[in-house]
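Q: Given only this backbone (229 positions), what sequence would you predict?
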């Protein structure tokens, strides 16, 4: 599995995919990403150090992702990230977090002492689809609540049961209200969730203009950031 890459197009940055403790929720109906979780501290420390040692500081920006939230990254690894931040002169970090950690984000900001962009996988702002069908357990009522805590949102597109109207509303919210967004085209995996090819084809044509937006990244494959399997 590739765990380090340099993103050279939009939002130039280095990215590392680290191993971490099990996701605090781990019950999303579409996700088998959590299979990368671990409880072996020694293994996690070894794998994570190997990847973090590849960071050069080329753009002064580092994105750290894992199969869950940044709060599940082992403490030893967090300390090592901080060491890398200082040595490689990293000026900005990107981290991911589940909604349930929203009141702890300041802890990470205080620990690292540099600006952090927090990403959240909302998948959709349609509450019934997000929590009822996708089982995200992200129980906010409006995008304004999300905006209070997170600067970047991740949306999911192309799942059977999703509609064009949902997607239109989601994209509209993102374009008007968030500094960054990642739109993930659903890739079939080991879960029962099905991909909607017709919806994806429509999205690809309808929203081709998103290529021009520097703050919007569309991933047609879940490895388009150059990490993962």
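A: Predicted residues:
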């Amino acid at each position: 599995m590739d765990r380090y890459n340099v993103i050279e197009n939009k939002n130039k940055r280095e990215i590392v995919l680290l191993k971490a403790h099990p996701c605090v929720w781990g019950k999303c109906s579409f996700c088998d990403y959590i299979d990368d979780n671990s409880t072996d501290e020694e293994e996690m420390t070894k794998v994570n150090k190997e990847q973090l040692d590849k960071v050069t500081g080329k753009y002064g920006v580092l994105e750290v992702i894992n199969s869950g939230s940044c709060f599940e990254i082992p403490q030893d690894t967090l300390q090592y990230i901080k060491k890398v931040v200082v040595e490689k002169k990293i000026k900005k970090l990107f981290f991911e977090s589940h909604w349930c950690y929203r009141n702890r984000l300041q802890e990470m900001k205080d620990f690292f002492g540099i600006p952090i962009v927090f990403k959240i996988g909302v998948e959709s702002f349609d509450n019934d689809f997000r929590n009822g069908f996708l089982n995200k357990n992200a129980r906010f009522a409006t995008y304004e609540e999300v905006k209070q805590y997170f600067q970047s949102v991740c949306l999911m597109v192309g799942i059977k049961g999703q509609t064009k109207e949902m997607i239109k509303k989601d994209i509209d919210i993102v374009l008007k209200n968030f500094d960054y967004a990642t739109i993930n085209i659903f890739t079939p995996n080991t879960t029962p969730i099905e991909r909607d090819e017709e919806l994806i084809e429509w999205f690809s044509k309808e929203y081709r203009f998103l290529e021009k937006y520097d703050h919007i990244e569309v991933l047609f494959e879940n490895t388009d950031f150059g990490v993962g399997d």
